[in-house]
Request: fold
Amino acid sequence: MKWSYSFLILLVMVMTTIKAIPISVDQNDDFIVDIHAWAQIVSTHFLFDHVDPSVYQLSQHIASTIRTSLTLDIYDNSIDHNDGNDTFMTRVDLNVLLGQLQGAVGSFLEDKLPGIWNRHLSQVNRNTLQTMVQEEMERQCPRHNYRCLHQQGATTTSTMETYLQAQVEQAWNSLISTDLPPLVEAAKTQVHGVVDLFEPQPCLLHWTLSEDELKSRLDDHWQLVRQQLQQKQQPCPSRHQHYIQHWLHTSLQLDQ
Reply:
């Protein structure tokens, strides 16, 4: 019985070691690949390495642009004249207040924007992308063989990059034209409500960007992001092959 237990432990250790050994595959090899695992890995890559970083960067820029456009016009007669009023504030106090108000605006926008993006990008999710990748590879490589996937994978990569850029751009345009104006107004209402608590009011809130100026500035930023996305779509065999080789090897590991 002791020998049986030792044998089982040894067997488990051997199997675990075998699992941990990296698979070495030559480009000329040809065998069947689990297309489901392949599609899962590719779709996850595009969602978390392409879409999420772009959305996060755009959201941060929106929040930062609106946040920093908020300034305070200070009433001189309410500053540096301590007449015994408990509401007396110094310029330092107002600078602190401005920082807190700007932080509140930024936090408000950063809290609301993810839900708006999710609504506009409802079709850009793991299941949808996985289905797209799988259908594309089924069409190009019906035998699911390694050599075909290795050769045709770059086409799938370019197709997905083009599709995702179009989806993000459409979501961005809808967000800026439809969702952003009421969102900005809601943020303004909140911070104006805070300043209204002071009596007498030591300052007047001022927004340095009009709605058109804000849209223009955000559009300029989008053009830069768009150029970066387009540069990623330029034919780059070495980059595509690196991705493809990694995805194939990972799918083989999962298939063990």
Summary: Helices lie at 2-20, 35-68, 91-120, 126-140, 146-195, 211-233, 237-255. The chain has one domain: 29-255. DSSP finds seven helices and two strands in the chain.
